[in-house]
User: What shape does this take?
Amino acid sequence: MSRQSATAFAPASIGNVAVGFDVLGHSFPAIGDRVRATRTERPGVTISAITGVTKELPLTAENNTAGRAVLGLLETTQPGFGVELTIEKGIPLGSGLGGSAASAVAAVVATNALLPQPLTSQQLLSFAMQGEAVASGAVHVDNIAPSLFGGLVLTVGIERPNVRQIPVPPAIRCVLVHPHMELPTREARQILSRSVHLSTVIWQTANLAGFLTGCFTDDLALIRESLQDVIIEPQRQSLIPGFEAVKRGALEHGALGCSISGAGPTVFAWCETDDAERVRDAMVAGFTAQGLACDTWICAIDAVGARVVD
Ligand code: HSE
Assistant: This one.
């Protein structure tokens, strides 16, 4: 007998990781969203409650990232029942931490546990993508895939993305500093130039290749050299008050790299364990100078993604 209800947790994620705009991301398991899915006799999807750090989200399933993702899943699998969702947000709205993706991922993982014949994570990916598109106005997988699969994840292709988990050197810690402001992803995408100079593309291509090679070979010096976004960050940094000081503080205190998490305004840094607290404090000082309070987290990048927790 299949379950009547299930709760899933999906971690936050850091899109782009500086060098892989829309194709690279990593999970950040210190925070995340939880979604409970319960079978209903009534077909379709209802959202009965949204609680946690963000409550001002649509309750209409079609307009909600979690609701839209589950509608797609039910339309395809036709299980003969509907689903009621309750969403507990652990990820702040408009933070650049993949909150819309995490809700969509947690919702499909929880609903999948109710199905008589559950789908694979690869199959769930496309439904979560449909949900994410509701929030950001574009189809990209760099938050969805790490939240679903866990760890540092590269996606190749968009219709049926190939997903590959990339090893992260065990010494690496990720520092996240979230200033208390919102930056809608749509807005941060609209300002981006449609054309990029060839020499800049070459530089970014080398950085992406160098970064991935550094991860595969545990070469922290190469990661330090290549963890730089020369295309997107220069265009977005003016949207984040104090960004230059935050980044400078991180690098001066030993970070291997520091950039914008997803579309911002959260800023992340990769560093070695012993430097993490100093890096965090320097980053916070950059935002404090702008009068912005912050939340901070430090964690390892484990290859553990969304999962049923109840
Ligand atoms: N990769 C996308 C962007 C989504 O940077 O706009 C970020 O969450």
Observations:
- Residues 5-165+303-308 form a domain with the Ribosomal Protein S5; domain 2 fold (CATH 3.30.230.10).
- The first helix runs from residue 65 to 77.
- The chain has two domains: 5-165+303-308, 172-299.
- The pocket of L-homoserine is lined by residues 15-16, 21-22, 96, 98, 140, 142-143, 185, 188-189, 262-263 (CB under 6 Å).
